[in-house]
Amino acid sequence: MLFRQNVLAGIASGDVTLAFRRWTKPTVKDGGSLRTAVGVLAIDAVDEIDEGAITDSDARKAGFADRAALAKELTARTEGRCYRIAFHRAGDDPRIALREAADLDGEGRAEIDRKLARFDDSAGMGWTRPVLQLIAVRDGTTAAELSAAIGMEKLKLKARIRKLKELGLTESLDVGYRLSGRGRAYLDGE
């Protein structure tokens, strides 16, 4: 579930606590969580709703001026049913603290080594270190550049880079990627 920048600001301030989406199948569930640029959201409820039942108050809680503005947004997608998603900000994205944790002891380094080896094994090729080394050369290295350099399809590579992000080794920029402090510490220690 993606949010526009103004809605993310409302989530961060606590003013936005609802979202409305038209889906063929919900992509979040009651009791689940969702990471966003402003932190982790706890999903309180996901309910199918008739669009006519949405109020101006609901629309404002979703970051819109009124029901009409929200309805216009919902018409952008014609297939599926309308869902009301209630949530609250549950805290910061844990990957932020992880990527800032640059003090790697022997056990921490060994754990990263094991996980990178599993990623490489499951891909049938050693891609993790070459990608980390290419990203280390220049902040903003794009998936297209990385894809061309290592000979892997871009969408497949982007999915794999998300695994590096989960380990706190990389972070996404508006355009491209960069190594985190943890990622630099890991490479510098090799």
Blueprint of the fold:
Elements: H1 5-13, E1 18-23, E2 33-36, E3 39-48, H2 56-61, H3 67-74, E4 81-91, H4 94-100, H5 106-123, H6 128-137, H7 143-150, H8 154-166, E5 170-172, E6 177-179, H9 181-188
Antiparallel strand pairs: 1-4, 2-3, 3-4, 5-6
Helix pairs in contact: 7-8
InterPro entries: WH-like_DNA-bd_sf (IPR036388), WH_DNA-bd_sf (IPR036390)
Organism: Ensifer adhaerens (Sinorhizobium morelense)
Protein name: ASCH domain-containing protein
Concise structural overview:
The protein is an alpha+beta fold and 190 residues long.
Largest sheet: 4 strands, antiparallel
CATH class of the largest domain: Mainly Alpha
- State the domain count: 2
Task: Show unreliable segments.
Answer: none
SSE order: HEEEHHEHHHHHEEH
Task: State the distance separating the first and last CA atoms.
Answer: 38 Å
Radius of gyration: 20 Å
Tally of alpha and pi helices: 9
Q: Care to count the β-strands?
A: 6
- CATH architectural group of the largest domain: Orthogonal Bundle
